[in-house]
Structures are given as structure tokens and as C-alpha cells.
Amino acid sequence: MTIKKGEVSFITGGASGIGKALSENLVSQGGRVVIVDLNPETSKALADELNKKAGSTVAVSAKADTTVWEEQVAAYEVAKKAFGRIDYVFANAGIAEYPWIPAFDPSTAASRPFTKPNLLTVNIDLVGQLNTAALAFQIFERQEKNELGLRGKLIMTASVFGYYPCPSMPMYAAAKAGIVNFMRSAAEFYKAKDITVNLVAPNLIDTNIAPDSLFVPFRERNLLTPVSLVVEQFNTLLGSSTVTGQALSINGEEVWVHPPESVKFKENDPSCKLIDEEISKLFGYTKI
């Protein structure tokens, strides 16, 4: 879908990789972008480049560590001052796997102290995106509906590793699986509140998320997913689209909507629905 001229996108991790490609694409459609990134020099340089090319202010930058709630709120204040309404929020910032505990080695284990797990990947790829989602929902809650009857759209960046296990990347897989199930739950919760929630889940893309040497064997075997195709999938969820709850997935040149888990769904559905009803009452969600 094509966005409406002047619509505003708030993009975390917006200065590199998928986020940069999104920023450039949305501006090329006539949109305006808020480039939220941990690297203020890179994000400002991209904003300056986009503004120079457009001949007007179509981009602003804001520094934020997505794991820090207050920094994301401060980034929104920059966006609000510059552009006012936010039409789209892209929870996109992420990193690759970091070793979470020492390599398994029974021969040396007894001589080593117990090591606290490194949860940096989960903190950025899951907690950081949940911070962005929490901000998005509260922004949209304060906005009037647009001509399509929507308050706003949240689009999250996941991965096919949110569906499939990877023994060497347990933290990345855990974070992306969390995003998948969060999206499905949030989409159900907000669908009657005029907010759409979706995600895009690509396989490996040639970006700066990891050392270049990692990508060499994938290039040789033609196993990389084109970033342009990933951006196309984000675009299908924008503009006049009212789709919600979709997990758009890409592997190489193949695109599909990944279905929700269905094993034993029928047997579990009554209990799942009942707990949802009871928790909604307990938390006061049924008042609206």
C-alpha cells in the first residue's frame, strides 16, 4: 500500500539496515520520518541527507537506547514537536546473538565460577521492542482516528527464527518468538480499538547487524533475503490496509503469511478464552 503524503513514521533502529531502508523508502513516498537510533551521528547524517534531497524537513533524528523507557519517550517528544501526529510506529531496533553463557565444556566447568547470563540480545530485541510498543499504544490512544477510522499502526520486526529453533542463537530466537506471540495477542486486544498490529519476519539479510564475514557463505549460496523485498512487505501493511495480526515472512524471494500455532488449538481454546475473560475482568480491560 502507498502511504498518504505527509504521514509520519517513528522508526527505532532507523539509521541502519532495515530501518534505514524504511526511512528512505517512506520519504520517497512523500512521508516524513523520525529516525530513532542509538547512534546520534549516523541518524542525524541520514536525516540531513533526506532533508537536503527533499528540499524541506521530512526527517528528524533522536537518540535513544530502546531498552530505556525514558529515552524513547524523549524521542517521541522530538517527533511530536517536529510533526505532531504519528501515523506509524516501527519497532525495529535489534542486534544479533551474543554468547549468553560460556561454551559448554565439562572438563573446565568445575574450575570456573558460575557466570551470570548475558541477556543483552533479549533486552534489545524483545524488551526494547516492547517499550516501543507500549509507547505506540499510548500515543495512538491519545490521537483521533484518521479518515480510515484508525488511530495508528504498529509494525514490529521479527525473524523466521521466531518460528524455528536455532541451537547457536537461543537468545535471538527467544526474543523473536516473544515478538511473534506478543504481536498476535496485542492484535487481538487492539483490533476493536482502531489500532493495527503486525510484524515482518525475514530470514538473514545482508546488513551491519553482524560481521561481514558471517554473510560470505550465504552470498556464495544465494541464501540472503533482499532488503528491498523486506521493505515491500512493510509497505503492504501501511496506507489503506486494515490488516491486523499478520506475520509476514520472507525467505530469499519467497513471501508467506505465517499461521498461528494450531496443534491442539481446538482442545485448548475454551480454557484460553476463559482465562482471557477472567484476566480482562481482573485488570479492568472490560470497561472499554
UniProtKB/TrEMBL annotation:
Gene Ontology terms, MF aspect: oxidoreductase activity, acting on the CH-OH group of donors, NAD or NADP as acceptor
Ribonucleoprotein listed as a keyword: no
Keyword flag Oxidoreductase: yes
Record-linked SUPFAM superfamilies: NAD(P)-binding Rossmann-fold domains (SSF51735)
Highest taxon in the source lineage: Eukaryota
Coiled coil: none
Keyword set, alphabetical order: NADP, Oxidoreductase
Cited InterPro entries: NAD(P)-bd_dom_sf (IPR036291), Sc_DH/Rdtase_CS (IPR020904), SDR_fam (IPR002347)
GO cellular component: a single term: cytoplasm
Family per record: Belongs to the short-chain dehydrogenases/reductases (SDR) family.
Protein's name in the database: NAD-P-binding protein
